[in-house]
Amino acid sequence: MEELPGLAPTVPEGVDTPTAWIELDRVEANIARLQGFADERGVALRPHAKTHKSVEVAQRQRTTGAVGLTVGTLGEAEVFAGAGFDDLFLAYTLWAGGAKGARLRGLHEAVRIAVGIDSGEGARALSDAVRGSRTLPVLVEVDSGGRRTGVQPQRAGELGRAAQDAGLEVLGVFTHGGHAYRGAEAVADAADDEVRSLETAAAALRAEGIEPRVLSAGSTPTARSSARAPVTEERPGTYVYNDRNQVLVGSCGVEDVALFVAATVVSVSLDGQFVIDAGAKALARDPGLGGAPGYASLPAWPDAVVERLNDYHGMVSVPAGSPRPRVGEVLAVMPNHVCPVVDLHETLLVVRDGRVVDRWRTEARSRSG
Ligand code: PLP
Fold first, then answer.
1. Which amino acid residue places its CA nearest to atom 2 of ligand 1?
2. How far is the CA of 141 from the centre of ligand 1 (A)?
3. Is any ligand 1 atom within 6 A of the Cβ of residue 48?
4. Which of 198, 235, 241, 243 to probe ligand 1 with, by most ligand atoms within 8 A of CB?
5. Residue 7: predicted pLDDT
6. Does residue 210 or residue 3 have the better pLDDT?
7. Tell me, what's the pLDDT at 2?
8. Is the CB of 179 under 6 A from ligand 1?
């Protein structure tokens, strides 16, 4: 896999570090581009809010044409429902026992929320949680090759039948082609797998007399190629900011990466390395895709590798004898995987033309359950 060419964004003047900032022009372009594509294909876009966790960004996605939001947890659903988003899909096989059952019921009584299922037991627990209230819509999750959650596509019918028997409304089927992240060469096949699995699952539901209205696919790498009939909906999330791994997997160019972390060089005391004040608590610790070295990249220092992360230290190695930044210099850092990075920052600086023009909160930050 190719390493990234250096294309360094300008670090906004006078920022305290470590601070995450977003380039507003790029965020707007990312939202508009994928929405335009989905519109052209006649496929609904339901962006996954786990990437931005921000009401402001969700509002912009909705204004641009998103039909609703995808969320990964009840906590995210509660934040967005509280902010006026009334069409949510919890794309997760929620176990609705105990406190979660009560929380789901509260949400279900306030907004339209559909939930993922991949077992009869899970479906019955959902049904118990909303008993006495109106019917809860569910989508059967099918595994398209990522081997995480979801039943085999041909089993969608029997599960749909069990859900209906439990008193739930089966809206359709969904899948997440997470195996696209095996590398750029895996993306096209993963997208085909998503389409085929949904097709098979829809047929299995029809064989049980259940007409699926939603066939929902989704990941940032596959969103473009799986946006075709019979798929009715796409759920990408990461596309809004992008990151180094999206560049490596070929879903965007470096010029589309919209979120960076500003970090100050705090030590150059040892040969062959320098240290920045962004560690694991500012950058997260996701590996680079396909064995790309380092926990992040420094666009202005393309040969540097963010080799080790402690809580507040990032150890960056450089080839022996090569130049290094000065202590006190502020650098832009491009995260490998933007979603956990966003979760570490309470606010993001919003930058246009090198100037901070706003600050956006990440209201759903750390709502991991
Ligand atoms: N849908 C589901 C169920 C997911 O788990 C994810 C990501 O983890 C997405 C959609 C969005 O995918 P991406 O992060 O590639 O944009």
1. 176
2. 13
3. yes
4. 235
5. 65
6. 210
7. 42
8. no
Distances (CA, A) of 94 to 15, 60, 99, 103, 339: 40, 28, 12, 11, 20
Q: What is the pLDDT of residue 364?
A: 98
pLDDT in tens, 283-324: 999 999 999 999 999 999 999 999 999 999 999 999 988 999
The predicted model scores a pTM of 0.97
- Contact (Cβ atoms closer than 8 angstroms) between residue 241 and residue 24: no
Helix H, strand E, coil C: the string for the chain is CCCCCCCCCCCCCCCCCCEEEEEHHHHHHHHHHHHHHHHHHCCEECCECCCCCCHHHHHHHHHHCCCCEEECCHHHHHHHHHCCCCEEEECCCCCCCHHHHHHHHHHHHHCEEEEEECCHHHHHHHHHHCCCCCCCEEEEEECCCCCCCCECHHHHHHHHHHHHHCCCEEEEEECCCHHHHHCHHHHHHHHHHHHHHHHHHHHHHHHCCCCCCEEEECCCCCCCCCCCCCCCEECCCHHHCCCHHHHHHCCCCHHHCCEEEEEEEEECCCCCEEEECCCHHHHCCCCCHHHCCCCEECCCCCCCEEEEECCCCEEEECCCCCCCCCCCCEEEEEECCHHHHHCCCCEEEEEECCEEEEEEECCCCCCCC
- Regarding the beta carbon of 238 and ligand 1, being less than 6 Å apart is answered yes
Q: Which amino acid is at 227?
A: A
Closest atom of ligand 1 relative to the 239 alpha carbon: 16
CB distance 219 to ligand 1 below 6 Å: yes
* Amino acid, single-letter form, for residue 246: Q
Digit-coded pLDDT (tens) for 321-341:
899 999 999 999 999 999 999
pLDDT band at 182 (very low <50, low <70, confident <90, very high): very high
pLDDT per residue as tens digits for the range 13-54: 999 999 999 999 999 999 999 999 999 999 999 999 999 999
**C-beta of 236 in contact with ligand 1 (< 6 A):** yes
Q: Is 91 in the pocket of ligand 1 (CB under 6 A)?
A: yes
* Cα 212 to middle of ligand 1, angstroms: 21
